[in-house]
Amino acid sequence: xxxxxxxxxxxxxxxxxxxxxxxxxxxxxxxxxxxxxxxxxxxxxxxxxxxxxxxxxxxxxxxxxxxxxxxxxxxxxxxxxxxxxxxxxxxxxxxxxxxxxxxxxxxxxxxxxxxxxxxxxxxxxxxxxxxxxxxxxxxxxxxxxxxxxxxxxxxxxxxxxx
Length: 162
Fold this sequence. Notes:
Blueprint: H1 10-15, H2 17-22, H3 34-48, H4 54-78, H5 89-101, H6 106-122, H7 127-133, H8 136-161
């Protein structure tokens, strides 16, 4: 049985900016459901920003994903490898993808967040495969990116049928 991985302190996050981003500005230090804590902080940041056009929102989400591959990979390596539960930048990117592609309105944003978390926790195919079989920063990021896309597509389908 492997020994539990120790969380860095908030002071250590401040000393190493890669950890500060990877740990979602400290939200990944939550002792309970760090992924959900990271998603909530990511949503608060996104919803506090001005409304973006769809192309700009997707560009910002894409930058978060591209940077996240490096951020999460580097942070994980500094912590001894693997997908540390406190690394939540992947939840930030997945959440932002969901919100960028969600139909307009608070109800859709809340539904998107709930659906994103459900998909990220349950991990239906192909999310589970990506989570299990890819390593490094890409492996950490890609399952949440796909969960974000799937959540957004589900909401768009529901919106079309409603």
